[in-house]
Amino acid sequence: MNPTAPGQIGVPMQIVVLLTLLTLLPAAVVSVTPFLRITVVLHFLRQALGTQTAPSNQVLLGLSLFLTLLIMQPITNEIYDNAWKPYDKGQISGEKALVTASAPVKRFLLKFAREKDLKTMLEATRTPAPAKPEDLDLRVLVPAYVLSELKTGFQIGAVLFLPFLIIDLVAASVTLSVGMVQLPPVMLSAPFKILLFVLVDGWNLVVGSLLKSFV
Questions:
Q1: How many CB atoms lie under 10 A from the CB of residue 69?
Q2: How many CA atoms lie within 13 A of 167 on its CB side?
Q3: Fewer CB within 10 Å, N side or C side of the chain?
Q4: How far is it, in rounded angstroms, from Cα 13 to Cα 71?
Q5: pLDDT tens, residue by residue, 35-68
């Protein structure tokens, strides 16, 4: 109940700020982590297989979440050791903790954000280019990273589509050549696509490639 010291935020305002940040947390997890690329690729994979709802959305989102936690573990550990622990012990201020925590996040975003997208965001925000990439603001880095990840995810998805598209074309040509017009080619090609995916251990290849792409 003591009055707040000058320059400090009161407890009610701190609670409001914390609740606001919690509402933004899902959007941050979806857009500023590998979750974005992984979900896009897995969605394209399911569409290419033609299984519609297998695996279900819950399974794909759960797999994407756990893979994201695995990839982001070194960054979260660094933030915890260098920012949260000193702040919790009162060794650094909240502003200093935020600056320290943003450093590994910026390094991660810079690693995968394309230069073209960064330039587009700089022009959109009318921000002069900094002397060093590490000096870029998060309001420029985050949308540039999202654009870069969307392009990368679509590129991987297009590559995944090609072998299954060939199977669909072969099945369609076979059904038309034998006069089976009433039989949808998808029904004929679906078992072969699933069989091909299982024989090549597709899940291991896809997940392993996704993990290696973030190394």
A1: 14
A2: 19
A3: N
A4: 34
A5: 999 999 999 888 888 887 778 888 888 999 899 9
d(CA 206, CA 87) in angstroms, rounded, equals 40
Quote the CA–CA distance of 55 and 42 in Å, as a whole number: 10
Among 28, 43, 23, 63, smallest CA distance to 142 is for 28
Distance (Å, whole) CA 155 – CA 162: 11
- The answer to whether 56 and 171 have CB atoms below 8 angstroms apart is no
Tokens of 14: 């701190």
Centroid of chain to Cα 147: 11
Using an 8 Å Cβ cutoff, are 43 and 60 in contact?
yes
DSSP state of 136: -
**Residues 104, 79: Cα–Cα separation, whole Å:** 7
How far apart CA 41 and CA 154 sit, in angstroms, is 7
Q: Work out the end-to-end distance of the chain between its first and last CA atoms, rounded to an integer number of angstroms.
A: 49
Residue 2 CA neighbour count, 13 Å, CB half: 4
Q: What is the pLDDT of residues 73-118, one digit of tens each?
A: 888 888 888 887 887 777 777 778 878 888 888 888 888 888 888 8
Task: Please choose, from the candidates 168, 160, 161, 205, the residue with its C-alpha nearest in 3D space to the C-alpha of residue 186.
Answer: 168
